[in-house]
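> call design_seq(struct)
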């Protein structure tokens, strides 16, 4: 009998069962996500409240400077199964409140906290803050220069699903100050909506600090390194870039031409031609790029694609020269600088002191100073 039941159990279930099961799984996953978001929102609200209470007590209570340590100890004793009550995290809570609540209204905000958990904070920011993990929030309110920068990193974290490490990298590279800063002619060559989106897609400068280059090097060396580190390169370029090829071949009038790097942008819905120059910008570069854009529009662009965009990456540029060079170009293009990490040639490395040697010399100086100037 058991063998018969096992055989029946092993029979494949009908398609409608699999459809029903998939629907149930989706509903459960959706509920799990909602629960996680609600829990995260409540947690950040609690931390904001704790920060406000700590600030208020520091201002008005006479408990001494060490009360946070006692507060931490008592909370951990009362709630041993709950993390987040270390003295370090309570100080983060204090910084969290101070960052998002204007100093001029913090007293009123503290008074309203019981009825308005996020009193004193911008509602738009509350919505963003409540959707990302506390660890991400710590990076933002301790590293961002101001509220506009924090809003930018909050929105980008949600948009791109950045991990904490990626977020830290983007803040370190000052992504906020670089986004949308390329010199372009988009306002004259693209429809308004496309122009604004394309402008925000480009940066200036681009930071390729994942590459270590030893001089002398040329554009081909840089291209090779970028393709070797394609994942990090795409991260620096930003969301939406799909890599098509390096030294992409085009045949025009029986002649061969090669585009340094060719991408397709899935949000802008257009090809993007990237040309690398290991030197300062000169106007002739714009003319060559304009030629490539015309070729891609003719040979590769489909009817439902938007006009191809060009990005010229140079080691240096004069913005006024670039603006003049792009002013009468008919194709949309931008010019940005890029930054590399340069390493010393092998024949010079041995002539420089090591870290250990520097530390030894510093210790020798310290010992000498102590002998000559005893306490």
């Amino acid at each position: 009998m058991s063998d018969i039941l096992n055989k029946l159990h092993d029979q494949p279930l009908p398609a409608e069962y699999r459809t029903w099961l998939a629907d149930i799984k989706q509903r459960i996953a959706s509920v799990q996500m909602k629960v996680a978001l609600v829990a995260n929102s409540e947690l950040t609200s609690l931390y904001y409240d704790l920060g406000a209470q700590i600030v208020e007590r520091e201002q008005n209570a006479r408990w001494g400077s060490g009360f946070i340590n006692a507060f931490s100890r008592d909370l951990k004793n009362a709630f041993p199964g709950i993390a987040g009550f270390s003295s370090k995290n309570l100080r983060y809570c204090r910084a969290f409140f101070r960052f998002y609540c204007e100093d001029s209204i913090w007293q009123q905000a503290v008074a309203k906290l019981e009825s308005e958990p996020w009193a004193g904070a911008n509602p738009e920011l509350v919505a963003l803050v409540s959707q990302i993990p506390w660890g991400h929030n710590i990076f933002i309110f301790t590293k961002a220069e101001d509220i506009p920068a924090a809003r930018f990193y909050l929105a980008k974290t949600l948009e791109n699903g950045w991990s904490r490490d990626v977020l830290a990298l983007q803040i370190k590279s000052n992504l906020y100050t670089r986004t949308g800063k390329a010199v372009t002619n988009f306002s004259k060559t693209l429809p308004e909506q496309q122009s604004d989106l394309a402008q925000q897609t480009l940066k200036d400068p681009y930071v390729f600090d994942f590459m270590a280059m030893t001089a002398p090097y040329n554009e081909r060396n840089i291209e090779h390194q970028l393709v070797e580190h394609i994942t990090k390169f795409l991260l620096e370029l930003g969301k939406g870039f799909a890599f098509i090829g390096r030294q992409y071949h085009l045949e025009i009038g029986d002649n061969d031409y090669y585009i340094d790097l060719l991408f397709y942008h899935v949000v802008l819905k257009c090809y993007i031609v990237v040309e690398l120059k290991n030197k300062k910008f000169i106007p002739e570069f714009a003319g060559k790029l304009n030629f490539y854009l015309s070729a891609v529009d003719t040979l590769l662009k489909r009817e439902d694609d938007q006009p191809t965009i060009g990005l010229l990456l140079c080691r240096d540029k004069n913005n006024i020269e670039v603006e003049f060079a792009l002013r009468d170009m008919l194709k949309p293009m931008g010019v940005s600088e890029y930054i590399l990490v340069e390493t010393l040639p092998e024949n010079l490395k041995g002539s420089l002191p090591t870290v250990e040697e520097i530390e030894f010399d510093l210790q020798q100086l310290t010992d000498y100073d102590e002998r000559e100037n005893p306490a």
